[in-house]
Hints:
Elements: H1 3-44, H2 49-60, E1 64-70, E2 73-81, E3 90-98
Antiparallel strand pairs: 1-2, 2-3
Amino acid sequence: MTAEFAVALPAIALVLAACLASVQLIAQQVRLTDAAADAARALGRGESAAEAGAIADRVSGGAALGVAVDGMFVCATLSTPGDGLLAAIELRAESCAVTGGR
């Protein structure tokens, strides 16, 4: 093992860890977006916020649900901190649906 390789190895490991954490964060954002859409559809069907929160919990793995009603539309906003190395990043997703069940 050369000295140059020994010096570069920690930097390479750090870049690789950051790349893997970024992929994990993107996957978590996709799950959060899907969960927000599911919760908005449930709220649009007339289900309670607790039932929509349970649906969002099942899909996202424990995000905080916010509900807003705007005329004909009901919107679900989910937020959660990132996982792993990028836990300081706050993830948010919002989705709206027509309130047909009310």
